[in-house]
Task: structure prediction
Amino acid sequence: MRLTQFSGYGLRVLIFAGLKGSELSTIAEIADAYGVSKNHLMKVVQQLVNEGFLYSRRGKNGGVRLAQDPEQITIGSVVLAMEPSFGVAECMRAGNDCALTPVCRLRNKLNEANRAFLQVLDDVTLADILADKPHRDTLRDLLQLELAQKPRVSAPRHAPSVAARA
Result:
């Protein structure tokens, strides 16, 4: 499985927004932090807004922030929304011209692998990625990110309950 650069940027934007919490981020700020093209990132952000992962506010004091709590955003749903196609082989894509398609047994296994790949990613939320303070601090340092306020990051959904730890 190989994700497109578009999906990779989408995940990075959500991580950045998750680190900022309720504070708005500009596309220029995100592009600078990752060293990527602002123009390309604008397309990525628009897709994330259209898919309901980001909230966008226009204007002088505008920017983007997460539209959902981090624990509600699964990595699988983001990848599925951002990827144009999951066809790892020609027979899985539009315009398939493979002569073996009608009798190919490999196609079913490739589809099964795709489903398994997405299932693993569906078990990971943005909150899981941002779960512990030392890791968030490391991410902020790498991105040279300073916050105006402390963001609220929920515990990962896979965290044991207090009763389970007692």
User: Anything to note?
Assistant: The CA atoms of residues 14 and 66 lie 7 Å apart.
